[in-house]
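Q: I have 421 residues here and want to know how they pack in 3D. Can you give me a structure?
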Amino acid sequence: MSNRRNSIYMLIIVCLVAGFVTGKSFFFNLVYVFVLLLIGAFFWSWAAVNWVRVGRQTPARRAQVGRIFDEHFRVQNTAIFPKLWLEVRDHSTLPNHNASHVVPTMFPAQRYRWEANTLCILRGQFTLGPMTINSGDPFGLFQFPRHIKATSRIIVYPATVPIYEFAAPIGRLTGGQAVRRRTYEVTTNAAGVREYAPGDSMNRIHWKTTARRGKLMVKDFELDPLSDVWIFIDMDRNARVDAPPGAASDYQANGGWHLLPNTEEYTVTCAASISEYFIDKGRALGLVAYTPFREMIQPDRGDRQLTRILELLALAKSETSVPMRQMLAIDAPLIGRGNTLIIITASPDPGWIIEADVLRRRGLHVIAVMIDPSSFGAVQFNFMEFQIKAENMGIVVYPIKLHDDLTNALSYTPAVRPVLG
């Protein structure tokens, strides 16, 4: 493009020299034509990126790894003259989000639309926008960019795999602790009646009591008498192991997504999948993690609780120096007796097993999802011996290795070894 302008400049100089040397008006007329051409091309290029309205519609600001994220774009020509072409460049940070587009000729008041469908491959928080509009004149002499600084954010949740069976929490076992709490949700357990309050649903009204007392009375419910489930995830940077360079990502066929070959992604994916499993079962679920700051989500039920957990896991990074052994020593004593503790870790430190055994003796049901670091390339570590040591202490163990199908690895109930010693 600059070469074309330079050619025009050279022609103007040559015509000027020829006009002064020969004195013929023909060469001066050519100079006027070339100058007018440059001026006209300049203003054409400037006007091409103005009087244009660009809009992007994002139906949802949340997505999930393995799912399609959709965006809709619209460009409208608000000028009284046509736009020959427009190049819309999107500078979003979402991986593989190819929203840039070349808009063909638009006549006055004409609109042009397109969609961008992106398969989310990486969890985290990303920026949508800014955008740049480029256009030029018909001769290709000038090109003007116009920057649209508007941005928005999207959070991509970690992927989840279906789990069909998992070790039962202690509240379902013989002698398990029953925890009774009132709730505003409608459950199968009616705890009594109370006076009607604004916002109560009509299907909660107890008509017999209402007729007897002469005022509206509604049924009060309580949560199922089951223990809480807590998930502790290990985001210690010293426990993270990345597979050697060149190792292929794992393709999880059920969801059609690739899992990065490092223990951090396996930890987060297991935590998200187990969380979804227990929330679907109607269990009260809590989570503790250092990402790198201490994050504790108190036990609760429902889709809103799952959303809170997935948002935390979406941004979780192995940037803390707090090992699982220290997490269990500091945070696990806050969990009441009779609850279930699920530990997800790739740490080869035997200290966390000793802490987990102390918690088990205190009355917690301990389940460990143990990710084998040796399968990711860690050397001098006997994972089988490590697993047997945990099982001999009465800990229910789910072993996870690189390239395992996570649905199969988590969808069974392991046999519990008798406690030794």
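Q: Anything worth noting?
A: Confidence is low (pLDDT under 50) at residues 171-179. The radius of gyration is 32 Å.
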